[in-house]
UniProtKB/TrEMBL annotation:
Annotated Periplasmic binding protein domain residues: 47-324
PROSITE patterns: PROKAR_LIPOPROTEIN (PS51257)
Organism: Pseudoflavonifractor intestinihominis
InterPro entries, per database record: Bact_Solute-Bind_Prot2, MglB-like_PBP1, Peripla_BP_I, SBP_2_dom
Stretch forming the signal peptide: 1-36
Name of the protein: D-galactose/methyl-galactoside binding periplasmic protein MglB
Keywords: Calcium, Metal-binding, Periplasm, Signal, Sugar transport, Transport
Major subcellular site: other
SUPFAM superfamilies: Periplasmic binding protein-like I
Organism taxonomic ancestry: Bacteria, Bacillati, Bacillota, Clostridia, Eubacteriales
Subunit structure: The ABC transporter complex is composed of one ATP-binding protein (MglA), two transmembrane proteins (MglC) and a solute-binding protein (MglB).
Pfam families with a match to the protein in the record: Peripla_BP_4
């Protein structure tokens, strides 16, 4: 099947300028809706993609990968076209619900939803079930009871507790390899600060819990100096880190961050303060974070597989469109879940993959 993508933008990288351009193009896409034009309607698969915000680097990357994978599949079939309509929820559930209503009213065949507020999933699911439109949630996981409301509800993402554990292990390995460097006061205790994603977000809660648990399970003693939410945002994290540096200075030995954008914000604040950097770790493995890992300012990150999420969603969309068993297209757990593995990224793994010179011994 040939698949040609009509998207709401042509993004090259997830930076602020691209996000603004995407938002403007999105308005044009929503105006046209999910329906195809002209006589090709029967051969057009209409997919509504609702993002919680396009300012999130990782989410923007997932959307770009989804569009790219659909375009790359163009030569596989001479009949089917894929029309992707992407909407920016701007971190507002009411806005996103309005966008979903528009997708449904304009005849979308499948919805891919990165929901703003996971507690609002039931309302969205009921709307989609009434319209007979399957929903694929991704990266922001609704509660299990909501996923079970209808057989055509799916979730694609990674297990947040696994990401937290791997992040904690990054700190553990660095601490054990060079404790004299990181244990600044020599007391054998890991003094840390925690940048959390947002209040009540499952990934934020689990990454926070399991990152620290990885240290305590290994027998390390820890002390939390500071912890607060920065809503996955680099600027908010920078502001928060500046406050903590004024209070604690170089007493902070480790900075855990629930995602890379916030980790980079912490590094921005540390660099501006001119202080010796602590051990900073993130999650997502975004392009800017990989640059920071290569440069040595970010100790490591945990790959949240944006391309894998996009690919699994596209496989599900195509299977549903063909009337095939989704379990034949993707590895489904409990009939609803596609779980993708996390993976640690350090300078050493980048070197092994040929993305930078091998570090000196």
């Amino acid at each position: 099947m040939r698949r040609t993508t009509r998207s709401c933008s042509s993004r090259s990288r997830p930076d602020r300028l691209a996000a603004l351009a995407l938002g403007a193009a999105m308005l044009l896409t929503l105006a046209a809706g999910c329906r195809a034009d002209g006589g090709g309607r029967d051969n057009t698969l209409r997919v509504g993609v609702a993002l919680y915000t396009q300012d999130d680097t990782f989410i923007s990357t997932v959307a770009q990968d989804l569009e790219r994978l659909a375009r790359e599949a163009e030569g596989e079939d001479g009949e089917l076209k894929i029309n992707l309509s992407v909407a920016d929820g701007r971190s507002n559930q009411t806005t996103q619900m309005d966008q979903v209503d528009q997708f449904l009213s304009r005849g979308c065949d499948v919805l891919c939803v990165n929901i703003v507020d996971r507690t609002a999933a039931a309302v969205l699911i009921d709307k989609a079930e009434e319209a007979g439109v399957p929903v694929i949630f991704f990266n922001r996981q609704p509660v299990a009871e909501d996923i079970q409301r209808w057989e055509q509800i799916y979730y694609v993402g990674a297990r947040a507790e696994e990401g937290g554990t791997l992040q904690g292990q990054l700190v553990l390995e660095a601490w054990q390899a060079d404790q004299a460097r990181w244990d600044r006061n020599g007391d054998g205790v890991v003094q840390y600060a925690m940048l959390e994603g947002e209040p009540g977000h499952q990934d934020a809660l689990l990454r926070t819990e399991y990152s620290v648990k990885a240290l305590t399970d290994a027998g390390l003693e820890v002390e939390k100096l500071a912890s607060d939410t920065a809503n996955w945002n680099r600027g908010q994290a920078e502001a928060k880190m500046k406050q903590w540096l004024e209070e604690f200075g170089e007493e902070i030995e480790v900075v855990f961050s629930n995602n890379d954008d916030m980790a980079l914000g912490a590094i921005d604040a540390i660099r501006e303060a001119g202080l010796e950097p602590p051990l900073v770790v993130g999650v997502d493995a975004t392009a800017p974070a990989l640059e920071a890992v290569a440069a040595g300012t970010l100790q490591g990150t945990v790959l949240n597989d944006a391309q894998g999420i996009a690919g699994a969603m596209l496989d599900l969309v195509l299977a549903l469109n063909r009337g095939e068993d989704p379990g034949e297209a993707v590895d489904l757990e409990d009939g609803h879940y596609v779980w993708l593995p996390y993976r640690q990224i350090t300078r050493e793994t980048l070197a092994e993959e040929g993305q930078l010179p091998l570090p000196a011994n």
